[in-house]
Amino acid sequence: HCLIHAKEKPFQCSDCGKTFAQRSNLEHHRRLHTGEKPFSCADCGKSFTQRYNLECHRATHTGEKPYSCGICGKSFASSSNLSRHCLIHTGEKPYSCGECGKSFTVSSHLKSHGLIHTGEKPYSCSDCDCGKCFVYSTSLIYHQRLHTGEKPYSCGECGKSFIHGSGLRRHHRVHTGEKPYSCGECGKSFTEKHYLITHRNIHAGEKPFYCGDCGKSFAHSAALRRHRRIHTGEKPYSCGDCNKNFRYSSDLAKHLR
């Protein structure tokens, strides 16, 4: 324990060189390299590197969220998630990067951010022939699901599954109709933040997406992709009855009428 106060980190990972103040933290970290997941869920068999992660996972089966925010009432499966959430209300970001000044609500986010400046990518995929590496351990975990096909986040409404929890949260808005991102200019609302950012280009008159073939510019990247089909000849929409292909989904819809 005294090593924490002394800021000494004598326990080093032989794979990536990362150091730790406590041996137990090194042992937890080593599982990222070995792939060991000793803590298994009795309900679904899913395994985890740490017991705490298993306990949080169990809440997906029980639906239990015992930790509630005193300000907005939102509930969480773990106390740590509640603590992070509370910082949204206070606006507090106590962890600042010495390189660029960017601030974070959680110390682990600052540590991960620091790798951007060093260029270090300590997490390697053992399945990739190209030896793809990542800055964040979570990025490696998500990437590995591309190999395994694992999609652990399932929608209770329609059963659709996702690699990321964030993907499931966005998908839920299809069922709820929630559009939390509103334009201050016209009041139009969107399900995702990046749609709002792109929409704002209309009001600003900005058209940052340029066609390399003809120089025409667009406010949306999606509009540029559709336009590019004129040059490439791509017709991705096919009629199931006559096999005729169309450049745009709207053209296929007209054809089907």
TrEMBL record:
Pfam families under this entry? zf-C2H2
Superkingdom to which the source organism belongs: Eukaryota
Q: Where is the C2H2-type domain?
A: 11-38, 39-66, 67-94, 95-122, 123-152, 153-180, 181-208, 209-236, 237-257
Q: Name one GO cellular component term.
A: transcription regulator complex
Any one Gene Ontology molecular-function term assigned to this protein's record: identical protein binding
Places the protein is found:
Nucleus
Q: Which UniProt keywords apply?
A: DNA-binding, Isopeptide bond, Metal-binding, Nucleus, Repeat, Transcription, Transcription regulation, Ubl conjugation, Zinc, Zinc-finger
* Keyword Cell wall biogenesis/degradation belongs to the record: no
User: What PANTHER family does the database record attribute to this sequence?
Assistant: TRANSCRIPTIONAL REPRESSOR PROTEIN YY, ZINC FINGER PROTEIN 143
Family statement drawn from the similarity comment of this UniProt entry: Belongs to the krueppel C2H2-type zinc-finger protein family.
User: Protein name, please?
Assistant: ZNF71 factor
Record organism: Eubucco bourcierii
